[in-house]
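hey m, so remember when u said the tokens were messed up on ur end? i reran from scratch. heres the input so u can diff it against urs
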Amino acid sequence: MSEELTTPNSEEPVASLSKRGARRVIQRAFVLMGRDKALRQRLKGVELMTRWMVEDWGLEWTVIIDRGRVEFHRGHFGKAQVSFLWKTGDDFLGQVASGRDPGDGFGLECVPALRRVLDLLLAAFCSTLRTVLTDPVDDDGVRLV
């Protein structure tokens, strides 16, 4: 579990993240998203279970949206209606950094009617994770990585 997560095209570890550290900053991003009143309001009518994966890092998590409430679970939990899949850490971090779809390195499995909600959710996640990565501490000031 102490292995550092690297991307194939980088010389350094990704912000020196361990697998545990990556999980912690991802979870922190979703906690902060759940506190965003404007986002919660926009998701108020949504009930959705989503599965998120970064394939080459072996990371997987489930996010449940329940009428504006955001609930995070490590690993696979239940039957997801939507799947977000990044093939590599480079694809994942590139999308987080730029907010743009990395093309072939990203997959989204969903019904077309959900696309607007998912675009909102993904944009909010990328923005929040960028913020967490610039200052990776929890509410008590404890470093996440």
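this time it looks ok to me. Residues 53 and 59 are 6 Å apart (CA to CA). if urs says something different then somethings off w ur setup not the seq
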